[in-house]
Amino acid sequence: MTFRFLDWRRKxxxxxxTISFGGFLVSxxxxxxxxxxxAPVLVVPLGIILLGTLxxxxxxxxxxxxxxxxxxxCIYADVLMLFLVLFFLICPYLAMGVTGH
Length: 101
What we know:
By secondary structure, this protein is an all-alpha fold. It has three helices and no strands. It has helices at about 15-30, 45-55, 65-100. It comes from Granulicella cerasi. This is Permease.
């Protein structure tokens, strides 16, 4: 039994959002949020979210309609998650440079 949801050759907005949100959910405990600590392993969830964002952009249509607007909102959410993980990745190193520890 195969799932259409998992077939990479087919466009799926649900799969793209699940991949992005899953990468974000993995990154929060890896970053030790709210006590951010340096964790270079956050590059992996960052790549997963980027993959989900690219999968979301595959769902864009040529003409504008309400589906197109919804896909744009999903892309904005993906970009927000991407920048949050970048913040989790970079912020501890910036804090070390300021405090000298």
